[in-house]
Design brief:
Elements lengths: L1 E5 L2 E5 L8 E2 L8 E2 L1 E4 L7 E3 L2 E3 L2 E3 L7 E3 L2 E3 L2 E3 L7 E3 L2 E8 L7 E3 L2 E8 L7 E3 L2 E2 L3 E4 L7 E3 L7 E3 L7 E3 L33 H12 L8 H4 L2
Parallel strand pairs: 3-5, 4-7, 5-8, 6-9, 7-10, 8-11, 9-12, 10-13, 11-13, 12-14, 13-15, 14-16, 15-17, 15-18, 16-19, 18-20, 19-21
Antiparallel strand pairs: 1-2
Pfam families: Pentapeptide
Protein name: Pentapeptide repeat-containing protein
InterPro entries: 5peptide_repeat, Pentapeptide-BTB/POZ_domain
Amino acid sequence: MRTTTAGDVTILLPDLDPDDLDPVTDLPDDDIRDGLVQDVTWRGRQIEDQSIRGCQITAADLGEITWEGGTLYGCEISRTDLSGAALTGVTIERCAITGSRFTGTRLIDVRLKDVLFDNCRFDYATLSRVSAAGSVAFTDCTLAHGTWSSCRLAGIALRTCDLSHLELDSCRLDGADLRGSRLHALAAPLDDLRGVVLTEDQLPDLTRMAVDALGIDVRTDSAADRNH
């Protein structure tokens, strides 16, 4: 059993042997199991209620795919382009996704459990009603300029990620570990950050958010003001 740890989050990872996998080049109409998917181009294809299980996907072009329903289970995905893709109602479980691109991707009603995103780009991505049903970690990821709304991501790890200009709306991040992440210009209601874990050097960014949220007028006293 393979596991990895990010902060206090332990994730169960897939344990695949490429020698046990069968090469897959064309996108079939039914489920894909135990497949070795390398250097394929499925850009703009549509997937509906399909399951992809026990597969290794490497250097694939899955940009602008539309995937509704179905499951991604026990897969390793690396150096794959999913930019502009739309995933709706998909369950992602026991997967390791590394060095992949989700720029402008839309995840809607997606359920995550035992998922690691490492060194991935989610810039300008939209997450709506995404939920963590188990351990989830983003490590060394770029999440800048994204929009997350109505997500339930309590207890996830967001370690050493770029969260600058990320916008949160009605999200639950209770206990989320944000240590080491860049929070510059993070836009979030204070309630969305209730219970998150930070380091001391991240407090100035949190203070700025609190000042903005409360409409506090911060002024510098002039010498004339101090003399009266």
